[in-house]
Amino acid sequence: MWNWLSQNIDLISLAVSTAMLVVWIVYLQLLLNGYRRQRSSSILISRGAGHGIRSRCLITSMSAEPLYITSIIATLETDAKSYEYALTDLRDLPEDLGSDPRSSMRQGSLSTGDYLDIGHFDDLVSQLVETDPELSNLSSWTDSVTGLNLIVVALYGPDLLPVGASRRFSFVENGEKSLRIRPNSLTTRQLRSRRQGRRLMRKLAEHL
User: Which of 49, 19, 68, 18 is nearest to 204 (CA)?
Assistant: First the structure.
């Protein structure tokens, strides 16, 4: 056996070196993946304080570093068509923004665990309905609106391209003359890629 080892020492050394190289590559890849996850933005769009149309819409940052919410774009869906508006600049606000200006303006800086309470779902829909000439003629939006899609656009870290998140909520009947807000997915969709960032930039340009 010693003769075989001495005759194949170069081959054995090469195999050991290759194995060590593979181990280090895997280890570095795990470190890189962990660093990327830590650096990635994480924004939650959720329903709180109930299930009905008076429940509240919350935007929460679970990112490792602070991020800045620049815009919230809402798409109101009906059986006939969709209507898209930026909730952030939808209306003029009073000088006194209360104890939470970020929620009132629907924009601002959020640290980890911070959130925006952007209002009751029915108030959001009512504001959108009042803004659009077609929808403002409706006697009752509850008979026409089927869903609300929200896109949060934010700046995170040194990257010039924005990141974001999106989630759709359906308005479903919950007994006689009552609606319930139901998320269409269990989680919020994260928009982090450069391609998605460029799409978000175009969205922002459309609503300047």
Answer: 68
Take residue 29 and report the two structure tokens written for it. Answer: 């890849």
For residue 202, which phi and psi values (nearest 5 degrees)?
A: -65, -40
Dump pLDDT digits (tens) for 89-117.
766 655 655 667 777 778 888 888 888 88
* pTM, rounded to two decimals: 0.76
CB 169 within 8 Å of CB 148: yes
Angle at 152 between CA 134 and CA 55, to 5 degrees: 70
Alpha carbon 190 to its chain's center: 5
Burial class (CB within 10 angstroms; exposed 0-12, middle 13-18, buried 19+) of 91: exposed
Q: Which residue has the tokens 């799409």?
A: 199
Written as one string, the DSSP assignment of 90-157 is SS---S--TT-HHHHHT-EEE-TT-EEEEEEHHHHHHHHHHHSHHHHT-S-GGGTEEEEEEEEEEEET
Query: What is the β-pairing status of strands 108-110 and 43-48?
Result: unpaired
